[in-house]
Amino acid sequence: MSWVTDENKLSEAGYDFIDDDYLHRLMRRKADRAEVRDMIAKSMSKQPLAVEETAALLAADSPELVEEIFDAARRLKRDVYGNRIVLFAPLYIGNECTNDCQYCAFRRSNRDVVRRTLDAGEIRSQVEALLSKGHKRLILVFGEHRRYSPEYVAQCVREVYSIRLDHGNIRRVNINAAPLDHAGYRTVKGSGIGTFQIFQETYHHATYGLVHPRNTRKGDYLWRLDGVARAMEAGLDDVGIGALFGLYDWKFEVLGLVAHALHLQKHFKVGPHTISFPRLRPACGVDLNGSHLTSDEDFKRLVAILRLSVPYTGLILTARERPEIRREVMAFGVSQIDAGSRIELGGYTEAGDSQTQAREREQFELGDIRALDVVMRELMTDGYIPSFCTACYRLGRTGEHFMEFAIPGFIQTLCTPNALSTLMEYLADYGSQETYAAGKALVRSELDKMPEGRRKQELIDRLRRIEETDERDLYF
Ligand code: SAM
Ligand code: SF4
Q1: What is the DSSP letter of 81?
Q2: Is 20 within a domain?
Q3: Number of domains in the chain
Q4: Most exposed of 37, 278, 294, 426 (fewest Cβ within 10 Å)?
Q5: Residue 215 included in any domain
Q6: Which ligand is the nearest neighbour of the Cα of 227?
Q7: Beta carbons within 8 Å of 269's beta carbon, 6+ residues apart
């Protein structure tokens, strides 16, 4: 590809650390009740689990042990991470693609999809539509195509950051795009991105080869596996990994994700910022027959096990999932969700309510297309604090998930107050009457729980200023 300037150089950590045979052997292990309980205890004492230890949890399939794992994940979420859920929205910039991933409607051989790349004016109108709903955090999504060079991606990011609408602006832009080389990552970093996400899709080599033809860029397993390591080497501190569940055995993918997280931890002293676990969805022109579709029950298990295995990593649950599943799985330690999402190009201003109208323009079908305001209200009813906080990233505090978890009092003194002030911005500027009422009640009850002192007084003052004046974007 024309933009690859340092000759496809892999990172220092650029070797293939996924041993399929070894992972398969681990998957054949029998459940051992005592070992499962030891692993749960280790996780509750805030220690990451090894791949072999994760395999012990994956082997637990009796209803009793599975319930113990669910319960541990719920406790970890409740007692350690607190009740915040960060909200974001995806913005698809372009679906030109030179790859031919068998599961994706954007693959080059799909003649039925409408190809489109938003121009600067269209990006502006999409972002204004998102701002008018209350969004503050976006992930920009791109196909893999020479048009989407690092310079182009950086330009899109700058464009997004420059847009203001009334009280709103986007405060964090993350990226989901093809892996780059070192120089490419440095260019993109210059635009001030948050997280760079790359999903391996499947860690299983043979399946990877089947769904990604070899004559495409994405057909190179190692180039992709090493993608986030190159990003870290090039100075991007926050990277996200993920697997597309449904291509191969879900247990194998969990082991692959944990191995990937530990590989980054070993080489860079810090693991991935986030893990995503999208499930394969129906898509225009895609045949899902013969795939390893992950059942709801197994999906719940995999989220709970990931929570226990990688305590320092944020978990992202997307709107691919139906509202009921999102609600249930959220309790297992999910830290971020998208809401009010549209994944067809131009969808935030052009989409009707019908999903069928958009099939020729979207990458796959979503399971949850409820408005942001509705999702916010449901979160609060369930006792969560919806948050748009971007404080750590703005103050250069990378590895925030690690700090939340490892530094005593971090959540109480920084995260919760910041979540509440971004929630108050939402309520004051965008909330419907019903959501406003639910939000005010939640803010009151959270304030009641806070210890008296200077921090609480400062927060109360800030919340008042947000409600009564034009002051915004206040964070600790
Ligand atoms: N083109 C870039 C790439 O492939 O890395 C980034 C964007 S791609 C549009 C984002 C992710 O969507 C992919 O990594 C894949 O995991 C997911 N995806 C593709 N087809 C899907 C489907 N049918 N159902 C659910 N997720 C899908
Ligand atoms: Fe292209 Fe990404 Fe879709 Fe593959 S998953 S066809 S690379 S947009």
Answers
A1: I
A2: no
A3: 2
A4: 37
A5: yes
A6: 1
A7: none
User: 144 CB less than 6 Å from ligand 2?
Assistant: yes
Q: How far is the CA of 465 from the centre of ligand 2 (A)?
A: 45
Residue 421 and residue 378 in one domain: no
Facing residues of 87 across strands?
Answer: 337
Ligand 2 binding pocket includes 107 (Cβ within 6 Å): yes
CATH of the domain at 135: 3.20.20.70
Q: How open is the CA angle 181-182-188, to the nearest 5 degrees? A: 90
CA distance 466 to 445: 18
Give me ligand 2 centre to Cα 316, in Å.
19
Considering the domain architecture, whether residues 107 and 248 belong to the same structural domain is answered as yes
Tens-digit pLDDT string for the chain (476 aa)? 444 445 679 999 999 999 999 999 999 999 899 999 999 999 999 899 999 999 999 999 999 999 999 999 999 988 888 899 999 999 999 999 999 999 999 999 999 999 999 999 999 999 999 999 999 999 999 999 999 999 999 999 999 999 999 999 999 999 999 999 999 999 999 999 999 999 999 999 999 999 999 999 999 999 999 999 999 999 998 999 999 999 999 999 999 999 999 999 999 999 999 999 999 998 888 887 767 999 999 999 999 999 999 988 999 999 999 999 999 999 999 999 999 999 999 999 986 544 444 566 677 889 999 999 999 999 999 999 999 999 988 988 877 777 887 777 888 889 999 999 999 999 999 999 999 999 999 999 999 999 999 999 999 999 999 999 999 999 99
Please check whether residue 350 lies inside any domain of the structure: yes
How are beta strands 164-165 and 168-169 bridged, if at all?
antiparallel
Q: Domain end: 391, 410, 427, which one?
A: 391
Rounded Cα gap, residues 342 and 365, in angstroms: 10
Asked if residue 414 and residue 373 are part of one domain, the reply reads no
Do 206 and 172 form a contact (C-beta atoms < 8 A)? no
**Rg (Cα) of the chain, in Å, rounded?**
21
From the CA of 217, the nearest ligand is 2
Same domain, 379 and 422: no
Ligand 1, atom 17, residue with closest C-alpha: 244
> pTM for the full model?
0.96
- What secondary structure letter does DSSP report for 155? H
Six-digit token string for 92: 């698809």
430 shares its domain with 286: no
Query: Using CA positions, which residue lies closest to atom 8 of ligand 1?
Result: 143
Shared domain check, 323 and 439: no
From 369, 391, 413, give the residue that closes a domain: 391
Say if ligand 2 is within 6 A of residue 280 CB: no
286 C-beta closer than 6 A to ligand 2: no
Separation CA 347–CA 133 (nearest Å)? 14
**Are 134 and 272 found together in one domain?**
yes
Domain range for 438 = 402-468
Same domain, 307 and 443: no
